Amino acid sequence: MKTIAEKTYAAFLFDMDGTLLSSIAAAERVWSAWARRHGIDVERFLPTIHGVRAADTIRRQNLRDIDLAAEVAWVERGELEDVEGVVAIDGVLDFLRSLPPKRWAIVTSATLELATRRLEAAGIARPPVMVTAEDVVRGKPHPDGFLAAAERLGVAAADCLIFEDAPAGIAAAEAAGADVMVITATHQHRLETPHKSVPHYDHLQLRVENGGQLTLLMQET
Question: Is 17 among the residues known to form the active site?
C-alpha cells in the first residue's frame, strides 16, 4: 500500500446521507411506505430518492391532485421519527475532527431539522456552516448548495474538494467546478464515475498546510 498526496484545497464540502453517514435503511423504510400509499412501484422508485430533496422526488412522480407541502411533511415526519440504523461511515469521525472548523461544510438535500437529527444519531458534530434544503431554490443536481457553502466559507467552489456518493450530488459538484471524491460505502452496485473513489475514510488522511490549506492523502493498494 502506498500513500499518494493529492491536490491542496481551500476547503472540503460534504454531502451528508451516504457520504458522512448511512441512512439508507431508514430512508427507504419511510419512502417505501409513502410509495405504497400512492400505488407506486417501490422497487423501481427507491433508487430515485437518493441525493435529492423530498419535494423534488415527489414532484417527479407527476401525481395528480396532491398537496405537495403535505406530502413532504408526511415524509419528513416519518424520517424524523425513524433514525434506527443511522450510523457514521467508517473513519469519518476521526477525519472530520482533523479538519479546521472553518475549512469544511455540509451541503445536504435534507432539511435542517432532519439533518440535525441524523447527525446526532450518527454522533457527528454539526459544523459551523451547513447548507440544507431550505437554503436553496434549486436542489441537486444544480450546484447552488455547493456554491452557497463555498461563499459562506469565504472560498471559491473551484478551490474546494466535494465529497459525494450519489449521481445528483456528483453532477452538482461538477457544475460547481470542483473536484470530487466519491464515497462508496453505501453503494450496492458499482457506480461508473471518472472521479477518484474510496469505500470509506479509513483510506484518507489529511495534512493541514501553513495558512490552513488542506492536502488530502489517499492510500492506494
Answer: yes
